[in-house]
Amino acid sequence: MPRQADAAPDLYAGAGPLAAWVRDLYPGYFALVMATGIVSNAFWYLEQRVLSDALLAVNLLAYPLLVAATVARALRFPRTLWRDLLDPRLVFAFFTLVAASNVFGLQLIQRGHDEAARALWLFALGVWVLLSYFSFSVLTFLNTAHGANVVHGGWLIAIVGTHSLVLLGGRLAPAAGEHAATMFVAIHMLWGLGVVLYGIFVTLFSYRIFFLDVSPDDLSPLLWVVMGAAAIGVNAGSTLIMSDPNLPFLLALRPLVDGTMLILWAWATWWIPLLVIFGLWKHGVCRVPLRYQPMLWSLVFPLGMYALATYRFALASDFPPLQAIARVMVWVAFAVWCATLLGMLVDLARRLRA
C-alpha cells in the first residue's frame, strides 16, 4: 500500500525516486544481505572461494547501503518507519537486520576480520534485545483477530535472528578471554530460546496453513522461512556441538542438542517439496504472475541456509553422506540467488525508466 510522505510535499517532490525508495523501504530488505552472505559462507566451506569472495563483495556494498537507507528513513520519514514498527504484520521483518549483521560478520571473521565481526555481533545483540520485547509487545497489545497473519507476518524471522547470534557468537567465544564462559552460556541460552519460539510459532503456522482457507496471496515467499528457521536451528546446534565450552553443564546438554538437530533437519527437509508444491499451485494452477519483490530474498536465504546447515550437520554428526545433499543444494541456492538478483536489476531499471 502506498504511504504518504512524512516530509512536506515540495521537499519530497524535489528529492525524486530515491526519496520514494527510502520512504517505502521494505523492513525485511536486509534478507538480501542474509541470502548473499549465507550462500557465500556455504561456498566458503565447500571450497568454492572465488564465488564466496564475489558474494562478499556484493555484501560489502549492500549492507552499508541498506543501513544508510534505514538511517535516512528514520531521520526523514520517521512516521512511516514507526508505522511499520507498530504493524504486527511487519514488525518481525526488522529481525532481518539482526540476522544480516551476523551473517555478514561470519563472512568477515572467516577472512580474519575479528574486530569488525565482534562489533557486528554486539550491534546485532543490542538490536535483538530491543526488537524482542518491542515486537512481542506489539503482537500482544496491537494485534487483532485478523490483523496479524502468521503466514503474512514472517514471524519466524525472529527465530532466524535469534539463532544467527549463536552462529557468530560461537565463532567469537573462544577468543573472548575472561568473557568466553559467559558467551558460551549465552549462546546456549539463545539456541534454546530459538528452539522454544520455533515450536510455538510453527504450531500456529501449521494450523493456519492446514486448517484454514488459503488463497494465493497467502502463499508468499515468507513461507520458506518455516524451513529456513528449522535449518538455522540445525546450523546453530552444530556450532554448539563443535565448540569446546569447557563447562560440564553445557557439555551435558550435547545429547539434547544432537537429538534436536536431527529432528529439525528432518522437519526442514520434509518442508521443501511441500513448499515447491505451494509455489506450483500459486503460479501454475492459479496463474499468479511471478514478479520480483523484496520478499523473494526470504526464499533464497532458507535454501542457502539448508545447504550450509546440512554440511555442518554432517560434520557435527560425523555422517559424511549428508555432504552430497549440501553440495547439490548450494548450487540450487546460488541459481535462485542469481535469478532473484536479475529480477531486482530488471525491476530497478523499470523504475528508473518510469
Radius of gyration: 20 Å
**How many DSSP helices?**
15
Report helical residue fraction. Answer: over 70%
Number of strands: 0
Keywords:
354 residues, mainly alpha, disordered N terminus
Q: What does the model show?
A:
With 354 residues, this protein is mostly helical. It is built from 15 helices and no strands. α3 (31-45) packs antiparallel against α4 (49-76), α6 packs parallel to α9 and α11 (225-241) packs parallel to α14. It is globular and about 60 Å long. Residues 1-14 have low confidence and may be disordered.
Please summarize what this structure is.
It contains 15 helices and no strands. Helices cover 75% and strands 0% of the residues.
Q: What topology emerges from the helices and strands here?
A:
Blueprint: H1 9-15, H2 17-23, H3 31-45, H4 49-76, H5 78-85, H6 95-109, H7 114-141, H8 150-153, H9 157-172, H10 180-211, H11 225-241, H12 248-251, H13 254-285, H14 297-317, H15 322-353
Helix pairs in contact: 3-4, 3-6, 3-14, 3-15, 4-5, 6-7, 6-9, 7-9, 9-10, 9-11, 10-11, 11-13, 11-14, 13-14, 14-15
